Amino acid sequence: MLHKDRFASGLCGKSIRTDQRWMTPVEFVTVGSALEDPSWENDIQWDGKPLSLLIERKILVIHSLLCKCNLCSSTAKDRHDQDNDDDCFICRSQGSLICCDECPRSFHQRCHLPNVDDAMLGDKLPWVCTFCVLRTSQLWRYPSQQTYQEALTCQISDHLLECQYLLLCLYNADKDHIIVADPCINVRNYSSVIKTPIWLDRVVEKLQQNLYQTVQHFVSDVLLIFTNCATFNRVRLYYCSIQCEDSGQHFLKQILELC
Ligand SMILES: [Zn+2]
Ligand SMILES: [Zn+2]
Ligand SMILES: [Zn+2]
Fold it and tell me: What angle do CA 150, 155, 159 make, to 5 degrees?
């Protein structure tokens, strides 16, 4: 994915985001191409057109060699600042964001789950997001013989990480913020149709207040969000097509398959 406002030249501006990281066009073409001597202008395409054409049409503008902007700066800090997203991965707005040291995601401290306290952040301390914690821990944390039914009966404290991960996935997938806030406030006639309203912010609140005992309680509330949506809209919202990372994680995959 090429981001126009991060583009400065082949060597400056980490303007291309892959799932793993942000790269300059030269880095991208060097890593991704099997060609002997790849050219970023001709070999990287955007919407079927080589970048050289976008530059010719002034859709992409090459910064001058003397440019003093942050993208063109060669200091380690300015280059490091380009390693993460400019928007919060959860709410998609900007502001003061914390950056994961293992992936390109950024978050507001209150948007990430669990919420991040200032005490957990220090200049020297690495900080790793829930997506990366789950990815690195799933190999050893859960024996694969645990079935979905068994997982449901577990104490929520044993699966807190997965629950937080699922919620983050749902926030990120809900691009139109349909299931985030209390629908009774903004949607006309909602409470007359839906007797048991529930929304993502409320599930987070209940999780933080330890109101769920087993995974089953939590899963029921998450599923109720979708059932309510379907009932109110009379159509199914296909959130189950959510592009869930780490799809091998059986526990979450099966929750999503139920939606
Ligand atoms: Zn510049
Ligand atoms: Zn946010
Ligand atoms: Zn991460």
Answer: 80
Which carries the bigger pLDDT value, residue 197 or residue 234? 197
Q: What is the number of other CB atoms lying within 10 angstroms of the CB of residue 51? A: 24
Report the candidate in 141, 114, 118 with the shortest Cα–Cα distance to residue 129: 114
Distance 91 CA to ligand 2 centre (A): 4
**How many other C-beta atoms can be found within 10 angstroms of the C-beta atom of residue 42?**
12
pLDDT of 244 reads 38
CA 103–ligand 3 middle distance (angstroms): 4
C-alpha distances in Å from residue 68, one per residue of 62, 63, 167 = 13, 9, 41
Note the pLDDT tens digit of each residue in 214-231: 988 998 898 888 888 878
> Of 1.20.920.10, 3.40.50.40, 3.40.50.2300, 2.120.10.10, which CATH number belongs to 155-258?
1.20.920.10
* Ligand 1 centroid, distance to 34 Cα (angstroms): 29
78-89 pLDDT tens trace: 899 999 999 999
